[in-house]
Amino acid sequence: MDQNTKDILLVALNAKFIHSSLALRSLRAYCSPYKDKISIAEYTINHHPDFILREIYKQKPKIIGFSCYIWNIEYVLSLVSVIKQIMPKTMIFLGGPEVSYDSEFWLREHKEVDFIIQGEGEETLYELIQYFYKEGKIKTLEEIKGICYRQGDKIYEGPSRFPLNLNTIPFVYDSNEFKELKNRIIYYESSRGCPYQCQYCLSSVEQGVRYLSLDRVFSDLQQFLNHKVKQVKFVDRTFNCNPDRALAIWKYLKEHDNGITNFHFEISADILKPSILDFLSTVRKKQFQFEIGVQSTHSTTIEYIRRKMDFKELSEVVKTIQAGHNIHQHLDLIAGLPGESYRRFQQSFNDVYDLQPEKLQLGFLKLLRGSGLRRDANKYGLIYQKKAPYEILSTAHLSYGDLLKLKMIEEMVEIYYNGGKFLNSMRYLLFYFSHPFEMYEELAAYWEKQNYHAIQHNKYRLYEILLEFFQEKNPTSNVALFKEVLKFDMYLQENVKSPPQWSTSSITVEEKQKIRDFFKEENMIQTYLPQLQEYTSKQIGRMVHIEIFEYDWINWIDQWQEKEPKKIKTPILFNYYDRSHVLGQAGCCKVPL
Prior knowledge:
By secondary structure, the chain is of the alpha/beta class. It contains 24 helices and 20 strands.
């Protein structure tokens, strides 16, 4: 090989621009003696194939490696086919979870692929590079563990590689990369493996958990803090499986908080101890974000998928964290798991929704290559797509039609719940239904009936559609009140300059003058907007908004078990300078005029 060129190109096709590839950076870092020979290229599955081909061709690499996942494998294979045509001497390899567990199949079906790296790739890639450069002790491909390769018409699969000592992987980010990654999520791993054996997850394949040393973790995290990155997402499968270690990391982050960086963790909530919960209540608002996998509350399903979870304990922990008003919580459900019917999934949905997490992520089972559920698909009557992403089509207890309904319900949850823009409107709307699932089920049916699911809608139209739905369900009851709660939610999001027609208020000339006077009164600013005292009344008027409501929504928020708020004219101040709420809503309070 020419020692003066970057012969090796590692390519990732991410699902979104905001994502970044931890895998490529880890491979590059471990192969640091050859760093000058390695370049990485990140694209998204939304890029046009011709653009990616052009960019790869311009680099003239001698070896190209693709990181393969269920969301990009078909795209990768289409690119690889063309690359081999236009660059026939270029060696192409694949790696990643999608190709690691059925490597012979991929090589047999796609002859343009020269070899596959199975499982952890750092040490394997390093030895392959030594082999290609004819350096070190490696003289033949047969000596390299963790690869499946082609020689002539034959395919050979080498022995598995022993798990890597994570401390041998240098910090994976170059300091000059942080500017490039400014508006993207940065991923980080402090451990590999998982103590649990959930049968839908590939982490169940590997036994045990390996950790980076705490000193190393602290050093790595300090780099993120020093560069004031926006978000770091830990990819550890169960971050707090070692509670003392998790607490040590959380304490370090609190003690070295830069006031900016948010850290996302996948945790097992039901094993959080009271002492740790006490500590978590003290961290900065929005410093931490937790993703908690519930998946199902059906005991039979939990048994089938070999998941360990105490939902009662989990619920108590979620409520305790919620009471601190400082940590954003995502709770996950998976539709299509064995043993769970449409109506039983309704119960799982209601169980989780009743906890009122900041996000309820409703996913659909994927039968991943190498997973236990894929192996036992016939046993549970699981029918799934034969091509990636291998999503469930039906089960012994759930029809395809049922899954289509759940898909539409998921879309409604994504629009009207997870965005946080309709929080109070959905709480009020729920009083008109027997349970949350019924509300979203009927809303989904309304969208389909009106064909709204086939059209893109702007944010104000989404409020209007929800109003239409309410009016259809309650044509003579409390429409004016529902308009008010929609308007309240709308102003929590933004200082609306041109309010939609349905939200216009009948404010009097006298009331308008009182609002203007409010911003000129020093004692009012000192009492309600102390952080804005240095600004002029005109400047303050752009950063806040006062709207006069016919109902007391502030008291209703605090005691929303009551169906209707008190009917009394209530001026409410929305402070867009202070968005300290975990959902990023404006601060709000009642003010005298």
